[in-house]
Amino acid sequence: MPAFTIVTDVAAPVDRCFDLSRSIDLHLESMMASKERATGGVTSGLIGEGQEVSWQARHFGVQWRMTSRITEFDPPHRFVDEMVRGPFAAFRHEHHFLPYERHRSGNGTRMTDVVTFRMSLGPVADLPVGLYLRRLMRLRNAVIRTRAEQS
């Protein structure tokens, strides 16, 4: 199954990064370009263990719908969301948060996202979709970093 990892360093405490990463409102803010909307389940605030959110967005010129559930939850160190309905044959996103010493600015957080997916359309779609997902994750993490470092 295709997978990728993105590491983002943030000059903010682990608990702040953890909460911003599970904020539905922040996710929507970071995905404004795709006109993403939360349409069911937890549609605002912080999502937690066992909860679901349904999304609707336009990607690749196509309207996508997906429902994800928080399947593992270990605050403020880790949580996992997995698709339960949607366009992927499989989709799993692990969020890891580790404290670390930043050279000049004191304590910070190293956020590591591990995404594993398989497209329903088959392996031919995995490469372009994987590249696109990486771009979306980097955009989302940039918004998390900005918000966390402002607080």
Description of the structure:
With 151 residues, the chain is α+β, with helices and mostly antiparallel strands. It has one domain (3-150): START domain (Alpha-D-Glucose-1,6-Bisphosphate, Chain A, domain 4, 2-Layer Sandwich), CATH 3.30.530. It contains 3 helices and 7 strands; from the N terminus they run βααββββββα. The protein has helices at residues 14-21, 24-30, 126-150; strands spanning 3-10, 37-41, 52-59, 62-74, 78-85, 88-102, 106-119. The chain has a 7-stranded antiparallel sheet with strand order 1-7-6-5-4-3-2, with helices on one face. Strand 5 and strand 6 form a beta hairpin. Helix 2 crosses helix 3. The protein is globular. The protein starts with a strand and ends with a helix. The mean pLDDT is 92.
Number of helices: 3
Strand order of the largest sheet: 1-7-6-5-4-3-2
Major sheet summary line: 7 strands, antiparallel
Helix content: 25-40%
CATH top level label = Alpha Beta
Oligomer: single chain
CATH third-level topology: Alpha-D-Glucose-1,6-Bisphosphate, Chain A, domain 4
CA gyration radius, whole angstroms: 15 Å
* Span of the ends, CA to CA: 38 Å
Q: What's the total number of strands? A: 7
Q: Kindly estimate the percentage of residues that lie in beta strands according to DSSP.
A: over 45%
Q: Count up the domains.
A: 1
Concise summary:
The protein is α+β, with helices and mostly antiparallel strands and 151 residues long. The protein has helices at 14-21, 24-30, 126-150, and strands at residues 3-10, 37-41, 52-59, 62-74, 78-85, 88-102, 106-119. It starts with a strand and ends with a helix.
